[in-house]
Amino acid sequence: MKPCSIHALHGFLGDSQDWDASPLPLKSLSHASIRRKSLSETGQALAESVSHQGKKVLLGYSLGGRIALHSLLECPTTWSAAIMVSTHAGLPTEREQKTRIQSDQHWIQRYQQLEWEAFLGAWNQQPTLQSSKPLSIPQRPVESVIRPLDEWSLGRQEFLLPKLSQLHLPVLWVAGEADTRYVELARSYQSENKDFRLYLCPGAGHRVPWDQPNLFWQNVKEFLNETGMDPA
């Protein structure tokens, strides 16, 4: 077994403390510490921010997974393995991309108009999140809400599905069984790269690590064991 360090990225509206309950030692990264205008540039900044000594595992959830995916593709030699949780590789058509940008601009307007709890309640009512337990999230700084919705909108992201076959490292791709859209996506990503290990977590929605923490971390440990890496 080779020692490795795990570098974890939270999702939208999250922060580095989201991973505090992890049973494994990890280095939780704040988006603000690596933020650049595009996801591609942010992925490069992420790789540049970590030590180039030893084995490194990249763990990303949702928006953090999209940042992580860009880092894997932009700087593949930095990482030894990856864990992608509820991660979207991008929208395939210009029409879908434009629709998503419009939707995210609408969310920016709602954030500016509503009190925090009302905004959070509306956010949690989205179909993707309804299958998960709502989380208590303290109010975030303005730039931690508006900038990701604008600059990192899924509609502005490159469609990365055709590039997944370029990844030649162990990848665990995770989705919650109740998160049907992301189950479908995860299966399509595995079909692009047969080296991906797919884990569909029972009893979990989009927020897999918080819906079913024991099952999630058990599978992460098994994945790391199979790849010969020991978190240190």
Task: Give a quick set of tags describing it.
232 residues, alpha/beta, Rossmann fold, 2 domains, seven-stranded parallel sheet, 7 strands
Q: How would you name the CATH homologous superfamily of the largest domain?
A: Alpha/Beta hydrolase fold, catalytic domain
Radius of gyration: 17 Å
Calculate the mean pLDDT score and round it. 95
Q: What fraction of the residues are assigned to beta strands by DSSP?
A: 15-25%
Count structural domains.
2
Query: Which CATH architecture of the largest domain?
Result: 3-Layer(aba) Sandwich
Proportion in helices: 40-55%
Care to give the gist of this entry?
The protein has 232 residues and is an alpha/beta fold. The chain has helices spanning 31-34, 39-49, 63-74, 94-113, 116-124, 142-151, 180-192, 208-211, 213-226, and strands at 2-9, 27-29, 55-61, 81-85, 171-176, 196-201, 229-231.
